Amino acid sequence: MAFGIWLGVFVLLSVWPSVRCSDLPRGAIETVCRDRYLLVTTQLSFAGNEPRFEAVDADGVHPITKQYGSECGYMFSILPLPGHAELRASYFSCHTDNQDDEVFTFSFNLITIDANGVEATYSVTATCSLPLPWSPREVSCEENYMEVSMRSDVSCLSGTTDAWTAALAKAHSSATSTWQVMFQQEGQQLIPMSFSEARELGYVFHLTQGRLVFRSPYTPRSVMGSVSMINGSVVEVVHPILFSRQRWVVMMVDWIVACSTNEGMYDGVGLVWQTPTLLSPLVSGLSGLESIKISMGVDGQLLDEPITAERGYSLDISDTTVQISIPFNAAGGYRKSFVMGNMYHEVYVVHLYYEQIFLDDCGVETRLRLHRPMNTPLLIQHLSIINQTVLEDRVFTVYLGNLYYDVDLVAVTVNGHNFTILEATKSDLVITMVPQPNSNLHAYILRLPFEDAAVHKLYSPEGLLQFSMDINYTLVILPQEEPFYYLASVVAQFNDVFPPVFKGVCNEKSISFQMDHKPFDYLWEVGVGPYILTTNLAAKRGYIMQNDSKSLTLEVPLFSVGYTYKDINLKQFYGSFEIHSRLPKTLEVKSSLVKACLFQTTEVIVCSTEGVVTVVTDVTLAIPGAEPNGTFLLDSTCRPQETDDTRALFSFGLHTCGTRVQVDHQHVTYENEINVEYTSQSVNAPVKTRDTASVIIVRCVYPLSDLYKLFAYWRFDADSPGVGTILTRVPVKTFQPTFPPTTRRPLTSRQSLQLANEPT
């Protein structure tokens, strides 16, 4: 609560003809009567960045410049942080109408300048009734001047000093009926001068209805003042002595004004200001001065102790010094963020208001008031990055903290992927603003799943899986929206992460695979050759696949696409099937299993990528009783490599043994025939004869696009195995009934071999 009460305020606002009163926005100009001055404020948004004031009285208009303000009791300042300009006018300022030291009337012109440089003038008039009774002596330590006033009937002399004796002697020898003044300075001779001469030096003496007023600027313009160091604080002192001869009596008024000019300091925690408990110049000038009360506040208003305690202010009083501490960013001050060299800076400003009451031996009260702006240097604000990611959630959670509420996040870049705050809401990126506990700061929490395309993934064969994000935060300082950038990198790492592992089992007519699911199986694709293993692929190729939350099982029937074959003979052969895990982007195979199983041979045809056909077929299906060792191909020199009672095994090159070739727009077809010698007997003739018949057609079909090397280099090298078919012709008539024709469906396989089987 402010010290004192408000007894009455009368404010009149008017404008020159160039601007109408209705043009004034609400709060554009405000006036407040304080204990010992009128406060006029105007918003910079209304007045522009360089407003100025003029004092107006019956004698005319008086621009309030820096020098004129220090001489006449006006303190004008532009305060960018709160966003306004303010004028503090002392009740004893030069152009104020003073009625019995109780009612004070002010008149000013406010000149504003808009963005286009156009000036406008507003007339501001205010009348203040004295809110608080005058103390016998009052000292005001303003930012740009010192002012002392005292009741004209105050007198208290207890003893004399050598300086007073010297001043008295000088006054006796030079006094006239006109008032004069001498400025006492240590080691300097007292020189009497008139009030007008003192005024030329910047000093103002004024006699009101009941008080004597003296005003002085600070050093260096205070040529008659001095600076002292008292208990570690700088104190400015001016000591004028007024004298006049009235008949046989010399009247003397001994004035002294002392103000601490300590600007305060920043100690890393907050702002600290210090002043001597007793200003020794005042003590020496006034008899037995004793400090009886000390109060503090901000912005020209004193605060009660509960409020200062709530805000964290501290007031420490010792026998020698008074120390005031205000924590950084405490209520009552002004904090602002800045950007310099892409660094986030801040500054904190407090307008300290200090009051101290003294009592001398005569019981006369002296009240000292002081205005002192304090600010921190430009401080670097260190942002905090906390990686709050929980690996089991598989979601990055990144906390960016230590941001004040004049800082906004407008965009982020994650590994080169740009997201505005609006765009983030349409993606898997979630950005949430949260308050920081126990502070007036706020933070942003960024969440992004590991599986998102913007996240970098790195896997090493040693089983280390690493997810990483390089984040570039774009932040702006409000309200000017000045941008700056903050970089952060976060990593999440898993150990013992390996590609899926399959187990293979041989069955009578198939191979089965099983894979147990693990948390990171989604990082790899399960493939068969160049294709991803999907339910559609399995259904198309005749695989039997089951996939649940625990495992994946795949049964691949013999002669399905994907098999390779070797060591084929009439008894058995090896069939192999490969399944592998690979990276989705690079298709790099990280693990594979090739399961080879031994199968019993019935009928087989293999069209290899090297252009070799291997076929096992039962020739007795076409000619019952035929001898397989009597079979041959179109080239009769091409005989079977192995035979038994019913079957023959041939293996030959596609460009040998009389093989025919036919080319169309999409395929190349190779055909050969298996011929057999057999014995026949006519019904009408009992004599048996030996004949030759083409009973089986062997066919291999390759995609034309796979055989480019054949036409480029005259070398057979297919990209994939061909599709093989065994076709049996109409059985030859013998003594047995004629067999109906049999069609055998092709069987296909992947990798290096392709084959078809014709069931009997």
From TrEMBL:
Lineage summary: Eukaryota, Metazoa, Chordata, Craniata, Vertebrata
Residue numbers spanned by region Disordered: 738-760
Keyword terms: Signal
InterPro entries linked to this entry: Ig-like_ZP (IPR058876), ZP-N (IPR055356), ZP_dom (IPR001507)
Comp. bias intervals (Low complexity): 738-753
Pfam families given in the database record: Ig-like (PF26562), ZP-N (PF23344)
Annotated protein name in UniProt: Zona pellucida protein AX 4
Signal peptide (from-to): 1-21
